Amino acid sequence: MSLYHEAAQVIDTVIKSHGSLKAAVFNKKGWKSDQKTRYALTTEAVKWSEILSEVIENSGLLQLDKKLTPTIALLLAHDLLLARKGVALPATHGLHASVARHKARLTSELTKSRIRRGCSSLEALRTLVNNAGSQAAHPRWIRINTLRTTIESQLETTLDGYKWTDNLSNLNSPGPNDKFVYLDKHIPDLIAVSANTDLAKTQGYKDGMLIMQDKASCFPAYLLDPAQAGGDVIDACAAPGNKTTHLAALVSSATSNLQDGPTSKIFACERDTARSQTLAKMVKLAGADKLVSIRASQDFLRLKPDSKEFANVTSLLLDPSCSGSGIVGRDEATISVHLPSATKIVETAQRGKKRKRSANPPANVKVDSKPAHKPEDLDAEEASPEVLEDDGEKLQARLTALSGFQLLLLERAMAFPAARRITYSTCSVHDEENENVVVKALLSDVATERGWRVLRREEQVGGLQKWERRGKVEAVEIAVNANGDSGAGLKSEEVAEACIRCVKSGEEGTMGFFVAGFVRDDGSLHTAAIPKGSTANGNGLGGTIVDEDEQEEEWSGFGDD
After folding, report:
1. pLDDT tens string 269-297
2. Among 73-77, 178-182, 496-500, 504-508, where is mean pLDDT lowest?
3. For a designed S-S bond to 377, which of 2, 373, 398, 401 qualifies (C-beta 3.0 to 4.6 A apart)?
4. Gap between the Cα atoms of 380 and 89, Å rounded
């Protein structure tokens, strides 16, 4: 059976490349074992690897059976000792026999490891490992879809039996019978439950009443506050649709007292055909299809801002392709893989033989892979110059391409004649995609000619005024200085204070995220000339159109975008 050999190859690849388990499993084609089974095995084995490596070393397994590699031993020991169905191989299979014959020894060492950690039972040890290995500071965020329901209604149905807590940390390690729900202090109609709570099978989720959406992902639509500008809205990069349906809920709520209902339209653009279908399903499920006009296979850059169809577009939400470096689990930066040493000498492995003492006894060589660092975080002593140079150059090239594309989208949004409010966001931690793009956009010809400025903190919607984590002053200063005299009028502190940042898996329980707002005062509304340096090409903003095939998309389906 290929499962254990292929799973071992996945783990060895991750250790060597500091990459992602998920990518190593699902990006590889032509393997024989089931992808989901392979992913479940590798993630669980890695989570238990520190304890299992200790068990394997102390049992002397690798000395007793030379055919086993450290990685194969780790996987087999996991299933033998911890999997409900045991080793997924026939009892007569060589690998199964290799580990099964030492089950008593391995079980004894697991018991010792459990006791050393102060756990009275295997279940207690399992809880300890799960809490340490999970994104403990990253709860499951759920937006109550006010197009279909209310918080009060969901408390009586889907969340019946849950208890309110005003402390987010209570969600990190609830007891076996504890079910807590946390009401967010910044975003209306947003709640959180513990990460191990599965609501995907509930009727509320199936009916589109509950939308799994990371807290940070709710910032762009809420900051845009489309009711302030009135008029129509464009979601420029809409799939899978969480932000689109959030916009629809906000528009509907703001106009709920109107006799004929909301008059604003939301244009949701998605250039990829398959993702457009996903967007349509999400919008319909959320009950937003009467408000949202889906522009399937529509590249936002090819819209004509001066078209009559968009004459009433006053708000635009831009959440473009980015590096995705802030997404929890994307780089699996918290994963540390421990492999058992094949050279540790254990007395139990030397029974009946007199061990000769060496002047230089073998070291306890424990392979503890470094977290999956981003290339720019690697210290010169932690990686070879070749790796540093290669990875750094690749990353910088990608960030340069992405930030150029992001700026182009932002400048295009500023070109819509009636536009008054824009939000720009990324799920990236890199300054190049965040403060740098904001500064360049503020200094662009279209921003200058049409009177665009940053949405200052004191002007932001109440919940986000209270958000303490703001942009980086030094990143703004670097970007301003890079633009020479043209950036002299920008106040770095004001721009940074206007920007909002979220850290990945921090105490706020969000993914890494960035968002900034732009506004255009009433007195500056006018039809401007085509920005300098552009060529009239019939699409509202001159210059080179980036081919969609040249842009790398980060896509995670119905995840917490």
Report:
1. 999 998 999 999 999 999 999 999 999 99
2. 504-508
3. 373
4. 44
Residue 345, token pair as written in the block: 């000498």
pLDDT over threshold 60, residue 428: yes
What DSSP assignment string belongs to 218-253? GHHHHHH-GGGT-SEEEESS-TT-HHHHHHHHHHHH
pLDDT at 533 over 70: no
* Domain edges within the chain: 3-133, 140-212, 219-326+402-550
Domain 140-212: which CATH number of 3.30.70.1170, 3.40.50.1820, 3.40.1080.10, 3.40.640.10: 3.30.70.1170
Biggest distance spanned by C-alpha atoms of the chain:
93
Between CA 164 and CA 187 the distance in angstroms is 17
* 136 is annotated as contributing to ligand binding: no
413 is in an annotated binding site: no
CA atoms of 248 and 256, how far apart (whole Å): 12
Flag whether 368 is marked binding: no
CATH of 219-326+402-550, one of 3.40.50.150, 3.40.50.450, 1.10.260.40, 3.20.130.10: 3.40.50.150
pLDDT of amino acid 272: 92
d(C-alpha 470, C-alpha 223), whole Å: 14
pLDDT band for 343, please (50, 70, 90 cuts): low
- Any binding-site annotation on 242? yes
CB 147 within 8 A of CB 245: yes
Tokens of 322: 């980015």
**519, 442 Cβ separation under 8 angstroms:** no
Among 59-63, 419-423, 534-538, which stretch is predicted with the lowest mean pLDDT?
534-538
In which region does residue 345 sit, left (phi positive, over 0), alpha (psi from -120 to 50) or beta (all else)? Answer: beta
Q: Which helix H or strand E contains 65, and what residues bound it?
A: none
502 is annotated as contributing to ligand binding: no
Q: pTM, whole model, 2 decimals?
A: 0.66
Q: Any idea which residue has 């929890």 for tokens?
A: 328
Does the structure show a pLDDT above 90 at 520? Answer: yes
Q: How confident is the model at residue 375 (pLDDT cuts 50, 70, 90)?
A: very low
Chain-centroid distance of CA 335 in Å reads 15
- Show which residues are catalytic: 427
Q: What is the dihedral of CA 73, 78, 81, 83, to 10 degrees?
A: -140
Render pLDDT for 307-319 as a digit per residue (tens, 0 to 9). Answer: 999 999 999 999 9
Structure tokens at 405: 């594309």
Q: CA nearest 149: which of 86, 207, 221, 63?
A: 207
Q: How many residues does the chain have?
A: 561
299 is in an annotated binding site: yes
